Amino acid sequence: MEKIRYSCDIPIRYRPDVCVVGAGPAGCAAATCAAEQGADVLLIESSAMSGGMSTAARVPMFMPVATGGRLLCEGYGRRILTGLRKMSAENGYDCGGKINAEHLRFLYEELLESAGVKLLYYTTLAAAVTESGTVRQAIFAAPGGMFAVEANIFIDATGDGTLAVRAGASYENGVESGEVMPATLCPVWAGVDLEAYQAGGCCSHNDEKMPALLEAAFRSGELPQEDYHHTGVFAVSPNIMVGNFSHVFDIDATNEESLTAGICQNRKLLRAYEKFYRRHVPGFSNAEIVGSGSLLGVRESRRIIGDYQLTREDYRARRHFEDEIGEYNFPADLHPPRPGKEEILEHKRIYRKERYAPGETYGIPYRVMLPKNLNNVLTCGRCVSADRYVHASIRVIPACYITGQAAGFAAAMAADRGLTPREVPVGKLRSALPVPGEWKG
Predict the structure, then answer these.
(1) How far is Cα 111 from Cα 135, in angstroms, rounded to an integer?
(2) Would strands 377-379 and 153-156 be described as parallel, antiparallel, or unpaired?
């Protein structure tokens, strides 16, 4: 590939204590909690909203937030969940644990503002300047031009580990053959007869009628791609439903050409599914897709190699740790990397066989958030150090709140005491974090 060399003077525009890159669920939790602990925090996001997969990608549900009557994403997560309940109640309904994206991004911004976080949208990470494992500056591109940020502590909440990789961290991505879990573009529906849908036996691939409908549509060509992992459509308010189906395969979330092809392909699939639902699924005869995610719903990309890697053996052993900053319990939801009936059946076997009983959890050690060979960087969210199996559990929204909150507390503690994240006293960090409390979900 032909190359050019380009150089310019880049102003150092901000010098916060903590710079958080990425305003998804983990990044919002990290920035809010760090600021509430007294740190001067800058949060930078490439899109035009906070929430990432939970808002821009229109993911309709949180996945498990509690077990055995205990709230696992205590603290920041409780504020989000109770805030959503309050907002839906003001509009005359119970959100039921589903995500109204407009309500959720409002809550994220409200908490960031009240904590005193400096928030920048439309701003994309371009590079990191690293000396001997320490990130000196992160460089960003924005409508106002290129600029640099100097910070004591950087938090990578990009989901893809972009900052850590730019700074020189090692990582894994998918399996050695290059396969990754498929991505999904979540559709937003209006005009659904919810009562008829819920009574119609077609709500997901687990219902009696949907598998036969899907198979007939695949064979006839009505649906162009054989894909039996069909989770269904969920009411996020009395008037709006959001789907979690239609896979696009072999998407590299770290490659702009692949992401572009994936989101365009998925929009074509949604046109076919709209016709399929209107023709065959009870309650959808007068429904239509009125929107979809502004981000492709990516399930898998880079996993940064940290001081410790959570493994399938840890999951199976229900292992807990001395440096534990939280606990979680979601089964490994490894979506098949290829379409086909046998693939989804194997997924179901694994998912059901290794589910936890109520009250069982595995621990999340602080060390999974410390990238090897980097001194002043913490990771949180989807890119923490885990093998592919545990990644399929820890990638979901409540776990992102857990690791994001811990990253925020640790970053504030490090910045205040002139420490690196690795030097933070784990006992003091653990004692500062909220303890899971009672939850009646």
Answers:
(1) 28
(2) parallel
179 — phi, psi (to 5°)? -70, 140
Task: Compute the distance between CA of residue 21 and CA of residue 125 in angstroms, rounded to an integer.
Answer: 8
Amino acid at 278: R
Residue 209 has a pLDDT of 87
In the predicted model, what is the mean pLDDT of residues 38-62? Answer: 97
CA angle 417, 419, 422 (to 5 degrees): 135
Q: Are 108 and 51 in contact (CB under 8 A)?
A: yes
Residue 106 tokens, joined: 């409002």
DSSP notation for 126-165: EEEEEETTEEEEEEEEETTEEEEE--SEEEE-SSS-HHHH
* Contact between residue 110 and residue 50 where contact means Cβ atoms under 8 Å apart: no
Q: Which residue, among 383, 327, 296, has the nearest Cα to 21 in the 3D structure?
A: 383
- Quickly state the pLDDT bin for 205 (edges 50, 70, 90): low
Question: Of 178-192, 332-346, 406-420, which gets the smallest average pLDDT?
Answer: 332-346
Residue length of the chain:
441
Q: Which amino acid is at 137?
A: Q
Q: Tell me, what's the pLDDT at 5? A: 93
Q: How many helices (H) and strands (E) does the chain have?
A: 12, 21
CA angle 135, 136, 141 (to 5 degrees): 90
Is residue 299 a contact partner of residue 199, using CB atoms and an 8 Å limit?
A: no
**Alpha-carbon separation of residue 238 from 95, 197, 284 (angstroms):** 9, 13, 15
Structure-token match 């653990």, residue found: 430
Q: Are 43 and 156 in contact (CB under 8 A)?
A: no
Instruction: Kindly report the number of other CB atoms within 10 A of residue 235's CB atom.
Output: 19
Strands (E), 264-423: 288-292, 302-304, 324-328, 362-365, 377-379
- Joined tokens for residue 71: 């709230």
- The DSSP bridge pattern shows strands 18-21 and 12-14 to be unpaired
Residues 335, 249: contact at Cβ < 8 Å? no
Closest C-alpha among 22, 40, 259 to residue 125: 22
